[in-house]
Amino acid sequence: MHSGVASPADRRLSALIRHLEGASNAMDSDTITASPTSGFPGARNSVFEHVVRAPEDPILGVTVAYNKDSSPLKLNLGVGAYRTEEYLPIVGLADFNKLSAKLILGADSPAIQENRVTTVQCLSGTGSLRVGGEFLARHYHQRTIYIPLPTWGNHPKVFTIAGLSVKTYCYYDPVTRGLNFQGLLEDLGSAPSGAIVLLHACAHNPTGVDPTPQQWEQIRQLIRSKALLPFFDSAYQGFASGNLDADAHSVRLFVADGGECFVAQSYAKNMGLYGERVGALSIVCKSADVASRVESQLKLVIRPMYSNPPIHGASIVATILKDRNMFQEWTIELKAMADRIINMRQQLFDALRTRGTPGDWSHIIKQIGMFTFTGLNSEQVAFITKEYHIYMTSDGRISMAGLSSRTVPHLADAIHAAVTRVV
Ligand code: PLA
């Protein structure tokens, strides 16, 4: 019987074959239609075509079978729970998963309508990245993941522990305090075919620098032409612009070409559910059949890690997302939060200008999302903490969400003193 896990030698061989086939395709045509991760007619099959269907879990699978049975006589004596409803399935709350995919991919997403998306509830954004990373390490032919430089400090740890090998691509230019777009294109352009690329869907952490829609389109073309596999981290949907759809633009751009991609979603920030650990991993596949086999293997990743996710946070999210009025109320609150952050940027910028603080501080109002990447160095940060009792990460990142009109003058005084006294 096929065990479902190919030997390392088999994996390397099939990776090589795929690589060679991909290379000859690319020689036939310069267009992106030849890329295995794009979905244009004529493109090759799913990069997960070889994933075999995993059997149901011997204990929790009993409940899956029980739930499918429509007999009025049915009785579930499988799982050891006083009331069986107490446990969620391994993949989490079904409603929550459907609604989460709709929230990030759009209500009218063809990928959802064609059942090509598998979504599993995970332990917030971190857990979604971790599960996605381990699935890739087990089933994908390329183990290298490219993460932006800099990025959220936990990314390299999560992906390394998941079994991937982490490399970086150019992202931030400290001189312009903006995107190093040329460097990004060069680095991704020289990445090995098939490599995984971690992208921040919006509100890049820690830099607050996002590509423009035009730059996203160029990134998409490059990624698809090289058959790289995009893995989006969406931890701040709604926080960048105050608009949920606008903040999902980058993800939807990639899904619209019919290609495959991964998306990790977090509800920690946009629904304030930090402590509930509620998030989702969606894998957009080429076909419904691949998606269902991928999901069966995701369960094998999750079951020995934490069995199944907790129920309450996901129920809160599902309740809000499926009720028109609550959803509307949520979007209004999100917009208010995003606007308040934007307002704090303006206040801090004005306060530094009023003080005549040396330097160009326009990046404070240009950057996007919760964070301002101030450009303060670690000595200046240490000085500010020691003398002014203001705490921030040593890379000079400040959370604008933690600032208020009352505290802006104190921070501006501190920054002014730091840049004039500590070099
Ligand atoms: N991805 C990015 C880009 C993040 O910034 C964060 C959280 C996560 C994922 C994980 O969020 P989770 O709570 O849903 O798992 N970053 C925070 C908190 C806000 C943290 O580091 O845990 C930060 O201060 O950077």
Q: What is the CA-based Rg, rounded?
A: 23 Å
Secondary-structure content class = alpha/beta
The strand count comes to: 11
Q: Considering DSSP H and I runs of 4 or more, what fraction of the residues is helical?
A: 40-55%
Distinct compounds present: ligand PLA
Spatial strand arrangement across the major sheet: 1-9-8-7-6-2-3
Uncertain segments are: 1-5, 22-34
Major sheet summary line: 7 strands, mixed
Rounded to the nearest angstrom, the distance between the terminal CA atoms is 67 Å
Q: How many helical stretches?
A: 15
Q: Helix-strand pattern, N to C?
A: HHHHEHEHEEEHEHEHEEHHHHEHEH
Overall 3D shape:
globular
> What's the rounded overall pLDDT mean?
90
- Portion of residues in beta strands equals 5-15%
Cofactor: pyridoxal 5'-phosphate
Subunit structure: Homodimer.
GO molecular function: L-aspartate:2-oxoglutarate aminotransferase activity
Keywords: Aminotransferase, Pyridoxal phosphate, Transferase
